[in-house]
Every structure is written in C-alpha cells, then in structure tokens.
C-alpha cells in the first residue's frame, strides 16, 4: 500500500521530507519509545526522507549518566540508523537564550513566581496573573509566553483535526522554568526549525503540546510542519510506559522480536513469515509497505 503523497508543506518549503526522533535520555529505550522511534523512522524512509536524531538532554537531574549513548546504541543495534550528526540540546543553550531575549525584548513573555498550589487553585490553567505586575518578582521565577484566545488547529496525519484556544485551555505557558532550565516547548520549537524538520511523528501524549508549538513557531516566524501522533503504550493500570515508571529496556539481542511486535502495534500487519526474519529484513519490508493510515487513531493501546 502506498502512503499518500507528500503534503503541501514539503512542496512549499522545498526541503523534501526531514523527520526526527527526539528522545529525552531519562533511561534506555523501552517499548513505548521504540514505537515512536520506529514510526518516525519508517515514515521518513518510506518518503525517501532524512531521519535526524536529537537528544533532548535539557534536564540533567532526570538523566542517568550514559542514557543517551545507550539509546543511540540500541537504535543502531535495531538497525535504525540516522542521518547527519546527533544534535544534543545541551549544546544549544546559547541559541535558546537568544530566542528568549528576543521574546523578552518584544514583551512577549514575562516573569512569574506563582507556585504549583496556586496554579492548581486556578483550575490548572494559568490565569495570567503575573502579566501585569510591575517589577519582576524575586528570583526564582519562571518565564511565561503570552498566549491569546485565537484557536490554533491542525490536521494530525493520524489523529485528525485537533484545535485549542491556548489562553483559555492552556494559559500562558512556561518557556524557561523556575530552576532556570529551558522548557521543552521552547527548545523543541527552536530545534525543529534549526534542523529543518518538515514532519514530526511522535507519541500521542504530545498532541496537546502541538498548538503551543505551532503558536511559538508563528511568534518566531518559523516554518510550519506536519504532525502525526501515534498511540502511546499503557500498562495494565492504564499508565504510560515510561522510563520513570521503569518500563523494561528493549533487548537488542532479540531485535527482530521487538521490531515485529512494534510493527504489529503500529497496525502494519506484518505477515507471519516475517516474524522469524532478521530485524534488517523486517525493516526493509516495513519501509516498503509503510502505511501511516493503518496506525490506530486512538490515544493509547494496552501493552497486553
Ligand atoms: N523528548 C520528548 C520525549 O522523549 C519527545 C519530544 C518530541 O518528539 O517532540 O518524550
């Protein structure tokens, strides 16, 4: 089955297809992150695109030493090799700082020292109460981006149309945290632009971050891109498999078992005779037959 032809966006940007996998190195690759890696890899390769690697190492306290190297080695052992140099977000702090200054100069963001309990009292959507304060609060404070009430919608390649009114549903959001670390939302947008990403394929848990990212792209005058959110994998209690929840690491000495199972979860219906083939042969089959429309249009799938 053929994937639908490349979207408007590629044609407009003239970049062709550039995809990426952007793991946070909080532990080894597990089945949930393998699915995101594999889906983004297959979508890129099936579209004769590039597949770039970005290590989102912006939160050192949550990153056990060696996790990034381990994830990269696991991907190579599984037969998924990326193009170009790996981009480490820890090497990009100056670039984020620069963008932050630009936003500050344009009065598009502001300091906020509201606490979690205060925000909980607001009903979890930040009500913008620090917007109009005069002098900045005492350190530590976060920086929040001003949002507006315009609806931001996009057509997700898997999940369909999704829209949010940021000011109402999300509130002004943090772009630099109280602990002075850059927030994911800022870094991801700056680096998707730097790496000329045209297609983002990732887990459904980030679907509702996407309007924030599109908003930030617009504020910064960056290119738009296309998005596809695959279901996340949940355990028997309905919790996302995650490194924090100690999901088991992918065993790459059984690479073909992992790939075959992941293809099944991605709705690709690999033929039974492929199960005993090498991971390499499975990936070749999967690139040739990749159909993003076969991925389940749901937020999560149970592991068992
Ligand atoms: N670093 C994020 C994660 O590991 C993914 C970010 C993205 O794909 O935009 O969950």
TrEMBL record:
Residues annotated as binding L-glutamate: 20-24, 56, 184, 202
HAMAP family tied to this protein: Glu_Q_tRNA_synth
Binding residues for Zn(2+): 112, 114, 126, 130
A Pfam family that the UniProt record links to this protein: tRNA-synt_1c
Known role: Catalyzes the tRNA-independent activation of glutamate in presence of ATP and the subsequent transfer of glutamate onto a tRNA(Asp). Glutamate is transferred on the 2-amino-5-(4,5-dihydroxy-2-cyclopenten-1-yl) moiety of the queuosine in the wobble position of the QUC anticodon.
GO cellular component: cytosol
EC identifiers of the protein: 6.1.1.-
Gene Ontology BP, a term: tRNA modification
Residue window of motif 'KMSKS' region: 240-244
GO MF terms held by the record: ATP binding; glutamate-tRNA ligase activity; zinc ion binding
The protein, known as: Glutamyl-Q tRNA(Asp) synthetase
Residues that bind ATP: 243
UniProt keyword list: Aminoacyl-tRNA synthetase, ATP-binding, Ligase, Metal-binding, Nucleotide-binding, Protein biosynthesis, Zinc
InterPro entries: Glu-Q_tRNA(Asp)_Synthase, Glu/Gln-tRNA-synth, Glu/Gln-tRNA-synth_Ib_cat-dom, GluQ/Sye, Rossmann-like_a/b/a_fold
Gene name tied to this protein: gluQ
Domain called Glutamyl/glutaminyl-tRNA synthetase class Ib catalytic: residue spans: 20-251
């Amino acid at each position: 089955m053929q994937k639908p032809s490349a979207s408007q966006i590629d044609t407009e940007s003239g970049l062709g297809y550039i995809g990426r996998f952007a793991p946070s190195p909080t532990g080894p690759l597990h089945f949930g992150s393998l699915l995101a890696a594999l889906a983004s890899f297959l979508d890129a390769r099936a579209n004769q695109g590039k597949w770039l690697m970005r290590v989102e190492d912006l939160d050192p306290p949550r990153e056990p030493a060696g996790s990034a190297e381990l994830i990269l080695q696991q991907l190579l052992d599984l037969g998924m090799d990326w193009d170009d140099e790996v981009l480490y977000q820890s090497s990009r702090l100056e670039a984020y700082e620069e963008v932050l200054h630009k936003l500050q100069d344009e009065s598009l963001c502001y300091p906020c020292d509201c606490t979690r309990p205060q925000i909980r009292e607001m009903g979890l959507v930040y009500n913008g109460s620090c917007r109009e304060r005069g002098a900045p609060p005492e350190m530590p404070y976060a920086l929040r981006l001003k949002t507006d009430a315009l609806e931001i919608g996009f057509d997700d390649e898997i999940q369909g149309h999704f829209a949010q009114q940021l000011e109402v549903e999300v509130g002004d959001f943090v772009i630099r945290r109280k602990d002075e670390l850059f927030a994911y939302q800022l870094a991801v947008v700056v680096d998707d632009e730097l790496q000329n990403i045209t297609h983002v394929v990732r887990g459904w848990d980030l679907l509702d971050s996407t309007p924030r990212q599109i908003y930030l792209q617009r504020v910064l005058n960056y290119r738009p891109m296309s998005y596809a959110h695959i279901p996340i994998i949940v355990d028997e209690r309905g919790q996302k498999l995650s490194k924090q929840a100690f999901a088991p690491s992918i065993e790459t000495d059984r690479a073909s078992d992992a790939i075959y199972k992941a293809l099944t979860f991605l709705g690709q219906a690999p033929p039974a005779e492929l199960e005993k083939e090498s991971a390499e042969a499975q990936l070749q089959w999967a690139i040739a037959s990749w159909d993003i429309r076969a991925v389940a249009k749901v937020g999560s799938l149970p592991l068992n």
